[in-house]
Amino acid sequence: MSKPLNIGEVAAQLGVSTHTLRYYEQAGLLRPVGRTAAGHRLYSPADLDWLQFVMRLKATGMSIAGMQAFAALRSQGNVSIGARREMLEAHREAVLARIADLQTNLETITAKIGFYEEAERHAQQAGKGEGNEKRNGGRKVT
Question: How much is the mean pLDDT over the chain?
Answer without folding.
Answer: 91
